Amino acid sequence: MDENKIVTDETCEETITAREEFITLTAPDGSEVDFLEIAGIPLDGNFYTILKPIEVLEGMTEDDVLVFKVEESENGESNLSLETDEDTLDKIYQEYLKLLDETENTSKD
User: Fold this and answer.
1) What is the per-residue pLDDT across 19-38, written as a single tens digit (0 to 9) for each?
2) By 3-state DSSP, what share of the chain in percent is helix, strand and coil, each rounded to 5?
3) pTM > 0.90: yes or no
4) CA-based diameter of the chain, in Å?
5) With contact defined as beta carbons under 8 Å apart, do 4 and 13 qualify?
6) Concatenated DSSP letters for 47-60?
């Protein structure tokens, strides 16, 4: 993984709240963190979102991102759980690279 390496932090399992230009996640301790959504990746019947914090989080660099599995709760709300499985993260990263390649090829046409 290169410039957009995928980082995981076990302390981030939150519920999603959408805003105009960014997504705010509320951590179990009640603190809120704003993210930009980099990409949404469907994989093996699941959906993952790659999020980059607006402000660099402790233990992360400016180029680091977090990957969350998006799941629907019983009441229809989207819940995010931090993906920590290295094999799954590698597959998501490969899908992301394919998406970037497709986007670059489309913009050249």
Assistant:
1) 446 889 887 788 899 999 99
2) 20, 40, 40
3) no
4) 48
5) no
6) EEEEEEESSPPTT-
